[in-house]
Structures are given as C-alpha cells and as structure tokens.
Amino acid sequence: MDFHWSESQDELYRRALELARRHFAGPSRVWADHAFDRAHWDICAEFGLMGLCVPEAHGGLGLDALTTARVVEAFGRGCEDTGLVFSAAAHLFAAVMPIVEYGDDPLKAALLPGLARGAAIGANAITEGEAGSDAFALRTEARRDGDFYVLDGAKSYVSNGPVADEFVVYATMNRKHGYLGITAFVVARDTPGLRLGAPLAKMGLKSSPACSLYLENCRVPVGRRLGREGQGGAVFQASMQWERSCLFAGYVGMMERQLEQAVEYARTRRQGGKPIGKHQAVAHRLADMKLRLEAARLLLYRACWLRDRGEPAVAAVSLAKLAVSEAARQSSLDAIQLHGGVGFAADYNVEHMLRDSVPATLFSGTSEIQRDLVARELGL
Amino acid sequence: MSNSPATHDIEQALKQYVAREILDGKDIGLDADTPLLEWGVINSLEIARLLGFVREQFGVVVPLESVTAEHFKDLRALTGLVASLKG
C-alpha cells in the first residue's frame, strides 16, 4: 500500500488549485449566488477540466478515475463557486463519459472534441416527475421510425439544461421490459421538438442552472443512440459510477477549504479571553470535521482505485458517495455553528456551503439509495 | 427449446432463486411464462444479484450483450440463455 501521489499527479493538483484560487476565490465577492457565467466555464475548460478522463484521441487529458478525482478535488478546494465545479463535473461524468463509453465511432468523432474542451456543454436528462429514485420507471418514450428514433416525454430536472448543447436523454422503447427497455440517446439542443422550461429556482448550487426538458415528436438520428436498444439502464448506471466517485471529489475539496477557513477563524476569533479554538467544545467540533473529511476522502480514493483496476466497485462507490455527501452537509452545519452570527450572514462565504451540500445527499442517488446498494452488496 | 432434464433443472433452480430471494416466498403464481420485467420482479438492483447467482450456480458468466429484455423477460427465456451458455 502506498499513499503517495506521483509527481505528475501532484503537478496537476497544484496547477488546478492555483488556477481555481486565482480566478474563483477571495474576499472580493460572494461567489455562491451569481448566475452561470460562461467566461468562468471557459477558464476551467482551458485547463482541461471538461475532458479530464476523456481519451486524448478525443481531445481530453486521458486521466484515470483516481487522477481525475484528484483534479476535481483541487477545483473544489480552490473554487468558492461550488456550482461551477458541479456543472463542469455533471457535464463530464453524466453526459460526456456516456458518449465516450457507449457512442459509436462517428458520434464520438463528431461530439467529443467540442465537449471535451468545453466548447459545447453536455447535460443528463433522466429524472421525471414520477421517476426520481425509481429512475427506471421513466415514461419518456422512443420509437424507431426508419433511420430515426422519435422521442416524446418530459424530464423534470436537467442540470446544465439552460446552457447545454447536447442532452443525454433516457427513454423507454417498451415499458413492459422495465429496466431492460430503456435506451439512451444524445439529442442536440436545436433538434425540432426539443423545448426547455424556465430555469428552476434552487436552494444552492446557484451558478449551476437547471430546467425541465420537453420532447415532442423529437426525431433523433439512429447514429445518436448510445449502446444498444435496451442498454440505457446500463449506460446510466455507468455514468452514476463516474459521478458518485469523481464528481464528489469536488465536495472533498470544498470540505478541505471549509476546514482551513474554520481553523483560521478558531485561531483568531477570541472570546472569554482566548481564541475560541482553545475552548474544547470548539476544538472537538473541528476534530470531528477533520475526521469526516479524511474518512470520506480515503473511501473516495479507494473507490476510484478499484474502478481503475476494473474491480467490482459498486459498494465502494456508494460508500464513498454516502460518506462524502453526508460529511459535507454535517460539516457545513458545524462550520456555521462555529462561526456563529458570521456563519449565518450571507456575506462571509460560510453559509452557502450548507446550501450547496444539501443537494449532494439527493442527486446521483439519494443517501437512502446508496444504503440500499450497499445493503444489496452485503447480501441482504 | 428442448425440455431436457438438464434444462428442467436449470429452470427449477432459477425459479427457486426468484421465489426465495426476490419474491421472499410471495405467491404470484410464478411459472416459466411469468413476465418478470413487466411486473417489476427483476429491476436494476435485482439483475446484478441474479447474474451473480447464475455465475455461482451454473458457472457461466452472462456477457453484457446478452443482458437484454429478450433473455430476461421470463424464466423460460432465462433458462434458454443459461442452457446455451453452459453449452
């Protein structure tokens, strides 16, 4: 066992952290609540964030999952705009990677260079009003018509939707076939019959826009199918393995920044004649935040390592996702408590981390779904 | 599909697995033609476990390209798949 990073991994991490801090951090502004900013996206894209694990032949950096997670972690640590990191990761892991892994060669050649360098933005569209945790109960339908599929249905929550150029859409070709009746497609934004709803108001991740998606008699060329007919469930599950591991590295980075911020505050803020960090109640809270961060981080690295080795990783990935998201939410509450009124005020870059963390226990499969997956792997 | 003794044994083993592990003994009149996907008996969580059972019980790995509705729609189809993979 060896916990060292290679020189090239360290160099990537350092460069990513420096870039994120230079552009997206500091007291000059409150970073959390602004709208999506394409200029910010482009800065990250120029680094290569939008194609970290896309093969170099398709315009990406060709990194493995562990190194990808480490770079996303650097952005999460350095960038105080968690919504930006989330949008980039949702693009890469839930829209671009399904094309990498399941698209045919012409589709990959046509779409991946633009997506991998961030010139085009991807979105994942599976969630429906009646299909959330029970994602494969979706009702959007696809039927074959010559060299096209015709899609009809509605998706209720599409991250990146308002700004996306390509949508990975999941539809059923036969509801009687349940999970094995679902097929995945890449639908271009300008396809006739594709319509977007108004941007959704949200609690957190404000700079990551989301909206509904409506498909009416939407004709998608056969070449835009991902995998085989009926393989959409597997396509989606593969994308969730990417998200649940590598996207959540952004929250590991956020927790590291949060802990650094809280420790600095505890060392300098004086109450009762001494720094508040000298009060055991405060010090123990910080120790618990550190424990949560390091435990979640190790679970995440191990899940990525298993995936890179091609070993079974369902339980490891779900444990990592569960640990990171629950830790982020709890530590964000602790950070507010520790900062007192400053933590509650919106001008100090503390409270938004709670609003950005609450959704982490919901998307990519809720905490309850992760526990279900772990329980199944235990043989229950 | 021939109804050889070996095929019969495969079907019975699969039926017992589904009745015991997935249906928890619930009587839904499970037979070779019960629509497992349409009725939601086999969902995304169960399919991985079922593939594990097939691997352990029969010593065959179902290739990903064979994980299709055609092969998992009922016990008759699944039995045929396992029998063909056992060769």
Automatic annotation (TrEMBL), chain A:
Give the family per the record. Answer: Belongs to the acyl-CoA dehydrogenase family.
Going by the UniProt record, its keywords in alphabetical order are:
FAD, Flavoprotein, Oxidoreductase
Q: Residue ranges of the Acyl-CoA dehydrogenase/oxidase C-terminal domain?
A: 230-378
Would the keyword Oxidoreductase turn up in this protein's UniProt record? yes
Q: Which cofactor does it need?
A: FAD
Q: What is this protein called?
A: Acyl-CoA dehydrogenase family protein
Record InterPro entries:
Acyl-CoA_DH_CS (IPR006089), Acyl-CoA_Oxase/DH_mid-dom (IPR006091), Acyl-CoA_Oxase/DH_mid-dom_sf (IPR046373), AcylCo_DH-like_C (IPR036250), AcylCo_DH/oxidase_C (IPR009075), AcylCoA_DH/ox_N (IPR013786), AcylCoA_DH/ox_N_sf (IPR037069), AcylCoA_DH/oxidase_NM_dom_sf (IPR009100)
Task: State if Flavoprotein is listed as a keyword.
Answer: yes
Acyl-CoA dehydrogenase/oxidase N-terminal domain sequence ranges: 6-118
Q: Please give the organism.
A: Nannocystis bainbridge
Tell me the PANTHER family matching this sequence: ACYL-COA DEHYDROGENASE (PTHR43884), ISOVALERYL-COA DEHYDROGENASE, MITOCHONDRIAL-RELATED (PTHR43884:SF12)
Q: Which domain of life is it from?
A: Bacteria
From TrEMBL, chain B:
Q: Which InterPro entries match?
A: ACP-like_sf (IPR036736), PP-bd_ACP (IPR009081)
Query: Any idea what this protein is called?
Result: Acyl carrier protein
Q: Which residues form the Carrier domain?
A: 13-79
Organism annotation: Nannocystis bainbridge
Out of the domains of life, which is the source?
Bacteria
